[in-house]
Design a protein that fits this description.
Length: 160
């Protein structure tokens, strides 16, 4: 059974990022949603693997992917990925820098805050390994968006 703190936390990490997409703009939402959906699906697969390997430990008694890892996948991942693409797509160095900063903050700072809140702690990964686990997906996200843009450009040129 999830504690009240865990339920409130899960609700907030799902609702707040998704509400932020109200401000991204319709055009940006349409442009980056394919890469966002792709990275969420990929992240769910990663979370399932990490769950199986016990890379992290949630403080609630019963282990449940749905109440533990899934809110992290469906909550911040897609909206945050779309915002990063909006602010940096087309400038790969800026994209990498923004991802290093955000992934570093999560892996080296925010994870410790979650530990103090008794939500989650790292189990079989150290902070650097967790950073790599978070960060490598940024290149996949950028690559998917890049390919999506190329395919869209080819389609647009065919239809012109």
């Amino acid at each position: 059974m999830a504690t009240r703190r865990h339920k409130v936390f899960n609700s907030s990490i799902i609702m707040i990022p998704w509400l932020s997409l109200l401000f991204i703009g319709k055009r940006s939402f349409k442009r980056y949603s394919f890469a966002g959906v792709f990275i969420v699906i990929f992240e769910i697969i990663n979370h399932l693997y990490g769950h199986k390997k016990h890379w992290w430990k949630f403080y609630d008694d019963r282990r449940s992917f749905i109440k533990d890892e899934l809110p992290f996948s469906i909550g911040p991942y897609m909206p945050f990925s779309m915002w990063l693409l909006k602010f940096s797509f087309g400038n790969f160095k800026k994209f990498v820098l923004l991802n290093v900063i955000s992934d570093g903050l999560f892996a080296f700072f925010f994870i410790d805050v979650l530990k103090k809140m008794k939500i989650i702690r790292l189990n079989r990964l150290n902070h650097f390994q967790f950073f790599i686990y978070l960060h490598y997906k940024a290149y996949l996200l950028y690559g998917v968006q890049y390919l999506f843009e190329k395919i869209k450009d080819i389609d647009d040129n065919k239809n012109s």
